[in-house]
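To assess whether the prediction recovers the assembly geometry, we first specified each molecular entity separately, as shown.
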Amino acid sequence: MSAAFASRWVELPGHVREDADAATLPQGFRAAGIAAGIKPEGLDLGVLVADPHETTSAARFTRSGVLAAPVQVTKERTDLGAIRAVAANSGNANAATGRPGLDEAARMQGAAAMVSGAPAEQVAVCSTGVIGVQLDGEKVVKGLLAARPELRPDGALDFAEAIRTTDALDKHLALDVELPGGTVRLTAQAKGAGMIQPNFATMLCFVQTDAALPAETCDLLLGVCVKRSFDRISVDGQLSTNDTAILMASGASGVAVEPESEAELRFGEALDYALRRLAILMVRDGEGARRVTRVVVRGGVAEGVERVAREVANSPLVKTAIYGNDPNWGRIAQAVGAAMLDMHPLHYDIRIDGTLVCSGGYATGKTAAFSGDEIEVEITLPGDGAETEVFFSDLGHEYIKINAEYTT
Amino acid sequence: MSAAFASRWVELPGHVREDADAATLPQGFRAAGIAAGIKPEGLDLGVLVADPHETTSAARFTRSGVLAAPVQVTKERTDLGAIRAVAANSGNANAATGRPGLDEAARMQGAAAMVSGAPAEQVAVCSTGVIGVQLDGEKVVKGLLAARPELRPDGALDFAEAIRTTDALDKHLALDVELPGGTVRLTAQAKGAGMIQPNFATMLCFVQTDAALPAETCDLLLGVCVKRSFDRISVDGQLSTNDTAILMASGASGVAVEPESEAELRFGEALDYALRRLAILMVRDGEGARRVTRVVVRGGVAEGVERVAREVANSPLVKTAIYGNDPNWGRIAQAVGAAMLDMHPLHYDIRIDGTLVCSGGYATGKTAAFSGDEIEVEITLPGDGAETEVFFSDLGHEYIKINAEYTT
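The predicted structure of the complete assembly is given in tokenized form:
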């Protein structure tokens, strides 16, 4: 069960109600999680099935030039607008595993098709874990067969558990969303980001609803909401070979979400809430992190605004200062300068939780602490019209400990 | 005195001999380092003077969009081809200090002119330390006046000590360089890089010679050698507001280095040796670092080769794995993919100290440890004709400790 979630940056929309029972999937879905022996212990293989043939879907993947085998197989062989089943394992990323890895990913897809009753081209496969080690396909196939009788309408938490690695926080939720045509359910399960699985910053997220959405609407809404959530977070600036986000809509509630309708707007708001909440949880769960910081950058040039936000979010100097509550905003100024090469003289302001510490590039003499769970840093560059935000975790001892001693 | 220096990546040229006496400057130079009270204790203000009026010079500065006041003053007011004096302080970066900071930097320049006997437009000023705190100009002026009687031909080590912050390793050297026209002397003093001064990754480097070089030759040689040294290192991917490198040639030996001559080639090799050695020392001295890694990337596209090298060098996952001797080369594969967005399928090889761990993007089954003081990682991308290298430090507990608790 999820602990109560609160963040100053995410608000539950008025037409959305949280359901404490996150195990029960929307109508039309079944899920299971089992221990297949890929990890030394615990659940490591999840299966998610949408029974209605009219299920629609959308997917987003990592942009890494080094794609894991399951990402390749899903991108190339799966009808991404009509995904009816997902098989996902933890403990092995099946990345940099060559032809044998592709064969195992395809075999995983085939076995999941058999178990779910959906054709192989409607099955997505996902993996997360260590890179460069062959996935034991026998274990996966046996595991999938064992999962078949376990598939249940209230299996969401087992599925969530199976894709989890070292996540300290639960990352699942269930929402009831009031639409003009009736109430629909939206559930989601996510894992990781930023080294929560210490070996790799893999982010997986699966969202289910019993609303009826055209595949194009799934794609549009998932695209917009991923851009506002998982695309706006950073634990350590690392990009995974395996990141995958999948939205599936079974239509089993009979409530339709038509393009450009009030229902689309409302459903989109609920999806946006869900993904931003999960994204912030990923940052909050960044290994050893104490605080989540949102950096907001405003200015006249979109590219510059984005570059400054990323430079601040990924600066180990800024991250360690926040971790240590060292009120050393000069490190933020350094990151601004590093992002704006050859742009001197640069007029910029820095505010920390509302306190103006740097005005026009110069110290105001005021200081601000990096205390509390959530910090807001605002940076203003010359001009206006462009604005962005990045949520990031700090950098502390636990990160080093976990990552210096992972496979050994 | 410098400890004996050895690295597999830097070799003393045959015509260059190291002199254990690094205190004695080349002919025509005097230097001093004194305690001006800018830091709580120790030397914190250095002065370097070239007495010959015909002294030539060249300088390179940080490309940050946020320039410290001394960098602005030196870039705008100093004849960079004829620098005859340098004043440099540690303990305060005089950055993000606005108009008062610029005034203090100009005052520092004026006082150093008085002390050195060179006109203000032939004086460079440098600072390193905390950002966003006003520099106490009274202390600087008093300190400079106190330094005047201390200026000595064998003052290089006091000068080096004054610009040092928390450097654990000495970064100075003295070389005798045989040129066709006679032997010239080359000395250099450097500090920092990569948070050796924990607050900031500032790199300062001063090089003196009694060879006679046209200013254009100074500029050419310094430019080439900085590109092959300080531009190729990373401790934590952070760019300082204060980085400065200055080469001064007094000509007092009477040995000329003419453009496109054998002497120029030989002098360039000595300078290259000196700067690469100091650069590697900076990486070796990266806070808490255990090992220096050189990543060499080869391929067909210069931009891609550079991007991959930087992504690997600045990846906290790669750095922590090397720190912990965790033979997890998958993190290098991840960094390659992150640098090459949307480039799948990507064929690349990874070698660690000669062992091919990944061939054509796929695990070979071989592993290689990250042990010893120096690691070499070679990455081959498709095509050929482009090659680069970056030297970087690992990331360990000491870095967090130092940087989370700096100003507090």
